[in-house]
Automatic annotation (TrEMBL):
<dbReference type="GO" id="GO:0009609">
    <property type="term" value="P:response to symbiotic bacterium"/>
</dbReference>
<dbReference type="InterPro" id="IPR036852">
    <property type="entry name" value="Peptidase_S8/S53_dom_sf"/>
</dbReference>
<protein>
    <submittedName>
        <fullName>CO(2)-response secreted protease-like</fullName>
    </submittedName>
</protein>
<dbReference type="InterPro" id="IPR000209">
    <property type="entry name" value="Peptidase_S8/S53_dom"/>
</dbReference>
<dbReference type="Pfam" id="PF17766">
    <property type="entry name" value="fn3_6"/>
</dbReference>
<feature type="active site" description="Charge relay system">
    <location>
        <position position="556"/>
    </location>
</feature>
<dbReference type="GO" id="GO:0004252">
    <property type="term" value="F:serine-type endopeptidase activity"/>
</dbReference>
<keyword id="KW-0732">Signal</keyword>
<dbReference type="InterPro" id="IPR045051">
    <property type="entry name" value="SBT"/>
</dbReference>
<dbReference type="InterPro" id="IPR034197">
    <property type="entry name" value="Peptidases_S8_3"/>
</dbReference>
<dbReference type="Pfam" id="PF05922">
    <property type="entry name" value="Inhibitor_I9"/>
</dbReference>
<keyword id="KW-0378">Hydrolase</keyword>
<dbReference type="GO" id="GO:0048046">
    <property type="term" value="C:apoplast"/>
</dbReference>
<feature type="domain" description="Peptidase S8/S53">
    <location>
        <begin position="137"/>
        <end position="589"/>
    </location>
</feature>
<dbReference type="GO" id="GO:0006508">
    <property type="term" value="P:proteolysis"/>
</dbReference>
<keyword id="KW-0964">Secreted</keyword>
<dbReference type="InterPro" id="IPR023828">
    <property type="entry name" value="Peptidase_S8_Ser-AS"/>
</dbReference>
Amino acid sequence: MALLLQLLSLFLLLLSSSAISDQIPKPYVVYLGSSSSNSIGLDSQVEESAHLQLLSSIIPRRESERIALIHHYNHAFRGFSAMLTHTEASALSGKQNVVSVFADPILELHTTRSWDFLESELGMMPRGTLSHQHFSTDIIIGVIDTGIWPESPSFNDEGIGKIPSRWKGVCMQGHDFKKSSCNRKLIGARYYNLQITLGGNQTGTVGAKGSPRDSVGHGTHTASTAAGIRVNNASYYGLAQGTARGGSPSTRIAAYKACSEEGCSGATILKAIDDAIKDGVDIISISIGLNSLFQSDFLNDPIAIGAFHAEEMGVMVVCSAGNDGPDPYTVVNTAPWVFTVAASSIDRTFQSTIVLGSGKTFQGSGINFSNLTRSKMYPLAFGENVAAKFTPASEARNCYPGSLDYKKVAGKIVICVADNPTVTRQIKKLVLQDARAIGMILIDEYRKDVPFDAGVFPYTEVGDLEGNQILKYINSTKKPTATILPTAEVAGYKPSPFVASFSSRGPSDLTENILKPDIMAPGVGILAATIPQSTEPGSVPVGKKPSLFGIKSGTSMACPHVTGAAAFIKSVHEKWSPSMIKSALMTTGKMRSDTYAILFSSLFSATTYNNMRKTLTNSSNNFANPHEVGVGEINPLRALYPGLVFETDVEDYLQFLCYYGYTQKNIRSMSKSNFSCPKNSTKDLISNINYPSISIKALNRHQKAKVVRTVTNVGALNATYTAKVHSPVGLIVKVIPDKLVFSETVKKLSYEVSFYGKEANGGYNFGSLTWLDGRHYVHTVFAVHVE
């Protein structure tokens, strides 16, 4: 009885604690839908006054100091963010004309040779070989990130023409950032006070520092990857030496500092998107996203909301897919109006050699600038063999903080494993450095493809096969020894590209009827501009100045590659809509030079190949599928002349919202028209919107599924395209009609694709439909789940 009373008391305490927590004001976003064409440009103060009045209707008079707006959205869409209790937020959500109210989420940062690799190895020709009379240098990219380092040579404006007259943005000053920090290359910079809810329900302003200047390095890196100018003799302390450049070196950059090291406020990202659209950018690059474990639906996701209205106003939004791979259902930023990017490797690795006392050597991965040599060996120990007293062996193996006996570790090279992903490589390194270890060998099968930067600390990483051999050596001798040599760059690595281990995978957890990610781009070991500051002791080699360039990995690095590619296409086709550019990049993957029959296996269809002219693989050396790569690696040059494009318009996206299950009232609030939902709206119909790929979540093997697509001819006026289908054994795919004839008067044509899976294998079946006219191929990947 006493135990029951204790449990009851605990339960009541938890309820009471939860109720108290619900009444603590926190930042919320109140989304009110689209700015109608009549309201754009109205006095901001009038709308702000209306929003304050709305707040005053639900906030008690005694707390009138909370009747204030953190952010106010009034250009591409309407709304605000403010400090609200859970009860007040619920009350607001029931008000007329309020589309959604949600707690301000904290989003994560998804953190040279890459462009050369795309050109030389995968068939892109250098920009210099092109001759376009209508080539534009006035394309503007808005980078929403951690700010920018304006003095970087990547943002020099020498030889760049005057700022486009349509630019309406500003260069905000700060204590360490002047108006003169902007130029004809970096044409705008904004910063925001970042309201972030930290632990213990405390909300504070963090990381703003009153300046657009980047103090993290992430925003500078992504901006220069997308559009940095050519910088000769760039390197990271001698590694990755060459010419650093962005994908569209002549493109203008506007930086929006919406993030700090602590993360990114969703409300602030919404404000940055609204400002970027108002300022006049053409493309927005966002290497940020919600954690895959805490995804929100599309009306509670700030990036999805902002990107919808950007698309509505003709501005493309490119986003990273997330770094939670290789597990499925981890891809984020999956709204169909967002261009979602997975990450791949390039043909360059950074190897740190392990030399054992036995003379045997192993090539590990990693970046270190140590001064160790072959001439001196050091004692070698396994983490669990140097454990602190009463520490479980599993913790010591993983080099948990506090798990090792510092006296036993000092002066040794220690081997750690990666059984627990919560203990990062950085933490393990710091644990060993604190214990005065000589160096570290990490055994990690799943992250060995991603070079970790250990600074001057001797570090390298191997897979399970090499790791087991090193552990066998330890057990074979009383005094095992080893050394770790400084990192050397290895160029021409094969096979490349492959899917990065960290790259988040589809299918989308929110809707499997849209194939996500969309496309893949380089995101491993990317050299680009960074902040020239040492972030921790030992990160800069002895006698060296802080580097102006850094090597980073992540879908954060892949995203600006696609942004740069999109800007390149926009610079030639200025009147193309975001969906046309997206379609051009998605339907023009590289094909094998041999017959189509060889290219497509019975398991899936590959739309790209690696530098060995073989089918693309993932980091586990298995064939990659569209849930890992989307349609495959970008090929910007081929995308200039796609032949046909899929135009996905705002009405497609509104229908998507209907099919997904949102009310017609909310959808009309989001649009600039009196749109009406179809009478029969189900999630199965999502597959039918005019998207450049096809995904069907559930195909009953005894029924047929049909989808319709419409293509627009952007090639020769008179052209005839013939359909070629490649599907796995047992999945019957038919196209009606199987021939499309375009002329001066016929620029758009529709066709139907039917799927019948009676004899197909259960689970996902991958394939493709290609339209050929003798000069172009228009490639559509499909993913069909047979039940």
